[in-house]
């Protein structure tokens, strides 16, 4: 070993991408906008219903009056893709936090040398975290138009779903970057 060896680039990339992924996934999980329903028959033309995995809000576009906690009259929250997202998204967030703690210990923190084995394990955990959030986001997207909505309304992808996708991809890429640390581990043996 060279004394004061610099932190490998792959580790730095992993430590930058994964917290960004965590923030995007957290926002995507909490914000009630996985899908927007507009042009609802018998409703004001500027009314938009925003559906997330925990809440439903309606907003008048002209006045920006927003009311959350809308009644789920069509059984939206009972649908399997929503139910799965309610379980996998928080699980992904917890795994991401755990992975970041392990990554911080493995990449450097307070020691002189990075610990490639710990960084690699963190990479696997973060990669898994990304897959756990990508799965419900993908499934929801696939079922977006099949989930219950008022007949004749227009459905579009909401920003929370997009953020969940982006966050998942950043976590997967960051996790993969950190798993490259296993290579250093093998070289040292």
From TrEMBL:
Keywords assigned by UniProt, alphabetized: Cell junction, Cell membrane, Membrane, Tight junction, Transmembrane, Transmembrane helix
Pfam family, one: PMP22_Claudin
Cell compartments where the protein resides: Cell junction, Tight junction; Cell membrane
GO (cellular component) term, any one: plasma membrane
Domain of life: Eukaryota
Chief site of localization: other
Gene Ontology terms, MF aspect: structural molecule activity
Regions that span the bilayer: 12-31, 93-110, 117-139, 159-182
Membrane topology: Multi-pass membrane protein
Family, as annotated: Belongs to the claudin family.
Full protein name: Claudin-23
């Amino acid at each position: 070993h060279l004394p004061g060896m610099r932190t490998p680039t792959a580790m730095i990339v992993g430590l930058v991408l994964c917290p960004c992924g965590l923030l995007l996934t957290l926002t995507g999980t909490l914000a009630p906008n996985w899908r927007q329903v507009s042009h609802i028959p018998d409703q004001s033309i500027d009314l938009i219903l925003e559906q997330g995995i925990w809440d439903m809000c309606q907003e008048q576009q002209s006045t920006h009056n927003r009311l959350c906690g809308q009644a789920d009259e069509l059984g939206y929250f009972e649908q399997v893709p929503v139910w799965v997202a309610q379980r996998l998204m928080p699980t992904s967030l917890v795994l991401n936090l755990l992975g970041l703690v392990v990554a911080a210990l493995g990449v450097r923190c307070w020691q002189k040398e990075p610990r490639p084995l710990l960084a690699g394990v963190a990479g696997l955990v973060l990669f898994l975290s990304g897959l756990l959030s990508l799965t419900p986001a993908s499934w929801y997207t696939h079922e977006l138009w099949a989930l219950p909505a008022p007949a004749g309304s227009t459905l579009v992808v909401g920003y929370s779903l997009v953020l969940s996708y982006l966050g998942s991809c950043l976590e997967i890429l960051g996790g993969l970057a950190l798993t490259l640390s296993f290579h250093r581990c093998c070289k040292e043996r």
